[in-house]
């Protein structure tokens, strides 16, 4: 049982607010309508019955009262009075309307009745008789006591009325008349009044229910829209959190790889200095210890040749040091435009290698930030170096432009290509990490037809 109730509660909670209101509010308003309708119809029934009974009682009293003697003094009615009552109640409009008539004494004795067998009999007072002897006109519709079988057998709607008979001079109740009136018209009138009241109550309840349903449906629709918008915003926020988490992890990985690459750069620079200029300087120093320089004799041709060789060795060492520094030191690109940076990198490569490079770019390019400018310069520099070393400097080209709101730069050649998984060296790996660390994309496309290196940066125009 508890499980069933839990399932019902769960299913109920899954319904929309509008549907919950339609169900709960509908049953609630239906119950209210039934209670209010029953109360209203009861009041209308009692009011119609009371008014109809008072009207009929007044009419009957106006006809019967003049025929009655002083009932305070008379214990029984005379035969003349009974005959007059028989004639009055047995003919005319009153005779047709009244099916039964009884005149009661306060002790429960029947002083007169249309059924002569009841005259003189004594009965226990009913609640209606007691109320009538207290001065109240009471009535009941189609309700019969045990001794009213003849009236019940008539088969037509009857209105039973108890009317107090008062003394004209004192107003005291001295007797009660009980009569059954044919109530076909009363029944129709009562049914029409009850139907009208039910229609009014039902119409009012339905109108209130429709108005409240409209308000609730509108509020529910607004809540659903806001809930959908909130879910959409939460979904977008979750996506942003996921993206931020992925970007943070990428940045952390890039930072770790950049640290490792920097260490490798330093090792390579140290190796270049050790294997190149340091060896040449060591050779020059070794030649300085030659016996030619320690001889106190005169300057000879051998000493002149040795000095010339030392000079050439030192010049070669200086040239190699300058070459290493040229690859490490950036030109002043912070204040240069994007087009100037591309042209500078291409010109430097052409001057250093003696090869030609095709540069293609639009008339206008956005001005990126300093990090993007450094990345662009290093990318073009390293890409052309790879084209010169691995692509045999064949059809070297640099192309830049905008695509889908992002700045792209492409370095290509028509060389034999290479396997990026095996050949991508320190320079390209460092460039990839540099580009991805600032939110860019790095792409390597290589094959027998040549190689294309492409970076894509999301840049904002700098003021």
From TrEMBL:
Residues 374-459 form the Histidine kinase/HSP90-like ATPase domain. The keyword Nucleotide-binding does not apply. Pfam families: HATPase_c. GO terms for biological process: phosphorelay signal transduction system. CDD domains: HATPase_UhpB-NarQ-NarX-like. Keywords: Kinase, Transferase, Two-component regulatory system. Its EC number is 2.7.13.3. The keyword Transit peptide does not apply. SUPFAM superfamilies: ATPase domain of HSP90 chaperone/DNA topoisomerase II/histidine kinase. InterPro entries: HATPase_C_sf, HATPase_dom, Sensor_HK_TwoCompSys. It catalyses: ATP + protein L-histidine = ADP + protein N-phospho-L-histidine. Transmembrane segments: none annotated. One of its GO terms (molecular function) is protein histidine kinase activity. This is histidine kinase.
